[in-house]
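Protein entry
_____________
===
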Amino acid sequence: MSKKEQYRPNVAMIILSENYPEKKEIFIAQRNDLTDIWQFPQGGIDEGEEIKEALFREMQEEIGTVEAKIIAEYPEWVSYDFPNKIAKRMTPYKGQKQRYFLIQLNKNAKINLDTKHPEFIDYKFVDIDRVLYHTAHFKKPIYKTVIDYFKKEGLL
């Protein structure tokens, strides 16, 4: 399969604060390898791994907790292409195909970015209507699609 055909299977999470549903605050984290790039936590699905298993593994690896519950799942795979600058580092993949989950942190969940292989240097919770102002440009169309779906479903 050529690079043009390959998309890395991936899970992604829109994480709501423990204050949901009273406040619709979404977790975003600043990457440690790209200047001022904020995103939702996400990560690859290993060979033979179940999607939800990958979701909680990636959550632990990226933000240091699994103290959360799944609220909903986006009903289909979505994909995006890497910008050229990133694609050169992400061989053999052209982009990622993702399954998105809406997740709420449990009360008193502790986020810890100082994980075994840290990917983020900072995080914050942003109001749902402001989140796209902070996130990476090439991911915004996917983020908007998924957020709009969860809004339509009455979840955001």
